[in-house]
Amino acid sequence: MSIHEIITPRPQLPVYFDIYRTYNQLIPNHWHNHVEVLYIFEGTNHIVLNDKKYTLHQNDLFVVNSGDIHFTRSLGASRVLLLQIPYELFDQCVVNFDMIRFRQYYPHKTLKEDPVYQKMIAHLLNLARLYVQAEKGYQFLFISELYQFLHILCGNYSIMKDPAKESKSAKHLDRLKKIIHYVEQHYQEPITLEQVASLVALNPEYFCRFFKKHMGLTFMKYVNLVRLARIHNDILQTDDSITIIQERHGFTNYKLFNHMFKEAYGCTPSKLRAKHIRHK
């Protein structure tokens, strides 16, 4: 998955929709133009967005607004509903959508008695049922349920952006997105603070403070998390040796790699692969 996700809708559907299982998955800070909806069927997930940390449990809902930089990880085994709605779909249907944001966090514990919220969730779960059953012509019913879900979301859980705050944060976001894009393109190579700081016209010392403040971690730790996410994927999806995978994705210090991998995923690379093979 690229750090700036480019989402392609499924055939015959105007959105990307999936129900997936994951184990200790980590997706470093990334962004996309789509609005992203996550609903937790099973497990626990952490999301870091705009300097705030959220812990999602079973039946919790989370909405990531277009352009927001966010980090996600699952703790152990999770089953998650993922709905990604193209920005263009909102823009066609909602006047001045560029000035609207959605509420982000919807904890089941505090909203389980809210009839409006429960009606919205019922439409979302109907999407899952229709998608899994995939009966002939299901796309018509799917689109109907989708628009009812979005109607409640827009009508009840959207707010107008503050133009002054948006203007102030836009410059920071542009810089961060430029950095993220650069790392995505060059993470397999050695990357220095001086290189990236000059890319966004900052001196290295100020760049370090700027990055840590807005991303919640140091720049070099972020680069290594990007590498680890690619390595994690290759361990599960290929038969290549751990050493080859590690070197392919820019890790030359094996001791540091092993330490960071175990810290991120709770086990060694070889144990992760063995566990994956057992559960196939």
From TrEMBL:
Protein name per its UniProtKB record: Helix-turn-helix domain-containing protein
Keywords linked to the UniProt accession: DNA-binding, Transcription, Transcription regulation
Source species, domain of life: Bacteria
Molecular function GO terms recorded: DNA-binding transcription factor activity; sequence-specific DNA binding
HTH araC/xylS-type domain sequence ranges: 177-275
InterPro entries associated with the record: AraC-bd, Homeodomain-like_sf, HTH-like, HTH_AraC, RmlC-like_jellyroll
Listed Pfam families: AraC_binding (PF02311), HTH_18 (PF12833)
Lineage: Bacteria, Bacillati, Bacillota, Clostridia, Lachnospirales
